[in-house]
Amino acid sequence: MSLFFVALAVEGVLLAVIALLVVAHRVLRVRSDRAALLVEARTAAGLRAWLLEGRGAQAYTQALSGIPPHIALHRLATAMTEHIPLEHRDELVVLLRDAQWTAAIARQAASRLWWRRLAAARLLAFTASPSDRARVRRLLDDPHPAVRTAATRCLPRVDDPELVTLVLDRLPNLAPLVRAALTVTLRDLASHAVPALLARLTSPASPRELETWINVAEVIGAPQVYPHLAVMARHEEAAVRLAVARALKRQFHSDASDVLETLLRDSDWRVRAQAARSLGSLGAHEKTAALATALADTAWWVRFRASLALAQMGEPGRRVLKESRRASDRMARDMSSLVCGLSDGSIIELTEA
Amino acid sequence: MDGLAHLAADGIRLVDTTILVYYLTLNAFYVVLFAMAIPDLWRHLTLSDDADERARLLSSEAFPPITILVPAYNEEVTIVDSVRALLTLNYPRHEVVLVNDGSTDAMMEHLIHAYDLYEVPPAYPVYIRTAPVRAYYRSRRFSKLLVLDKSNGGKADSLNAAINAARFPFLLAVDADTIIAPDALQRVSRPILLGEHVAAVSATLRVANACRIEHGRVTDARVDRRWIPGCQVVEYLRAFLFGRTGWNALGGNPIISGAFGLFRREYMLAIGGYQVGNVTEDFDLVVRLRRYLHDNNIQATLPFIPDPIAWTEVPSTLRILARQRERWHRGLIGTMLAHRDAVANRRYGPFGLVALPFLLVGEMLAPVIELLGYSITLLGLAFGLINWEFAGLFFLAAFGFGIVLSCLGILLDELSFRRYARASDLARLFGFAVIESIGFRQLTVWFRLRGFWHWWRGSDSWGVMLREGFTREHGAGGPKQRAAA
Description:
The complex is a heterodimer. By secondary structure, chain A is mostly helical. Helices cover 75% and strands 0% of the residues of chain A.
């Protein structure tokens, strides 16, 4: 047979196989979609019987056991977030921990395949108990950021101060997604997180570590950290001072505005802009004069943030802005005009974002 | 005389064999891209599966703030819906900076009326020089909206003006008529959230012609019955789903579509924004960006995510298609020649050693090589200089392999996102896969050859792009003109 016919046959077979795969996949998907509808009806009925008719969670867990584990996990995650009230969850978790499918998924925490470990982390976020400490620790150290992010949700269920400390120590080197997820989780575990945080803010640490921990302090908003923030405001690294300026917007300490006023004169424009912003968030009326001076700052962002902060302060701030529209400094004049011309909605949007 | 004929026959066979090898190599490279796309596609599908996690993260500060840049020129028909769709994207922190590039229709009036715009003083920094901005407007209804009314300066100039007024560290450049999925910003942020230091992110663009659009959203994806947009559906599937996804494993994408691309602002400012006067400003930007990163030893990636999150209208007539392809090719030639020192240059890593040579040989010179291949094969057959078997092999490599590759694109879509739910659409896709390889592609060869001619003559025109508008449940969708200076 000539080469042409061989090549023709190969291409023909390839096309036929592709077409067959597409059609077969479509047929299977249509069937699985139909099956999914039945599954949904069955699990919804179980959920209804449990939550509305008070007949126990067994019917629901049985319905979940009868479907493929990955679909059951998906259904469970949706139900947990959207339907099942907090007070009912423990009852369900007790039953789920005895189910074969959940045990099988939880064992995947040690799998070599990241998507299996991800499934384990997603499940353990709902079913973990203090006995899963080792598993959760392993998942928190996972090389895949998505697995680590999912594992952070297990922390409140394990409720272990040592794990919280471990998380705080690892935080500075993690991806932004994991860091954000962990920071939110740490807020829910403030009773363990705050003492560990205080210990770290007083010990020698790299600027990157300090910056991360100050960000955690900002999210938790614990007043105990204020004295440490006030000290860090004099740190030689601009990134640390910037983090302090940001964190102080949630510290309603009587001296916080004084520290921010100092930061408003910082050598780094980013720190000055953030200090102005935080003064606005605190509503520090007594600092309008300092903000008025910042309207003539050489950096556009500092002028912008200072003018927004003044606009946030109601009448005293607005008065300063109106006066600045007649100021001798052109930049201060332009910026005051810009912010005075904004609607209240825009000011809220711009100060928040 | 016999010797001369033999020599000619040998020469033709040699050239034809070289072109045959060229086709086989190029298509084999696409097969490699296909193979490389599969694990990446699987990874993204698995990661995007957890909507619950994403919803939880929306309340945190994990998502980076994004400014959406929208250059618009004479878009009065669709602008209000398009802007509303952008403003209502499901994302915790984003703003929209729309630039009216000296429109001559009633677009600005429509915007002022629909969004209750009011003028604000021009106190915005100017990092990149642009045509004069006549006025800045904010909206009383949507505080996330900033509108710049400026003199006409072209798309690149408008994007630069928008960059100046942007507040956030990430910029998403979109066309005013690009339709974006509600969760598009969440998806496009994925590489950033996973800890990659990205300079830019691109995503899959799909063809919106014949799709049902409601309130600026695609609610029913369809494949156009007409062959010109239909073939482009197949073309886009192949190019984005495995072409660009596959490039992730080869050091990232050489091209980020101007219709939807996310960029880190600091790098955009560092390279001076878009180059005004370049007819393919998006391609030029990516090349300059990559060179800047390499030259300054910055370890940043330009990943592609395969999620189909943006939809765009493609030309539906030959005339418009010809203008578009001619312009794209003219821009490609200009940019490749401007950056010729980076081609096959080890200093630029995989981009210089793989992506740029591929663009040179597999894209820029492709129409010349293809025309040469078709002509020589047909002439050789006519004069009996090559046999039917060889010609058959040539056309199998040129057309048959192309059909297989297009069908692989359809297969990948079916296995992953399955956007075309109807069996009739699926059948149409297979039909268009054949027409795209035999007929459509040869037409684009001709259009791209014209690109060489216009580039030689120094043309920098965009041409008038007549668009049809979309099938809409609400609002008008009549023909509109789209042009840029």
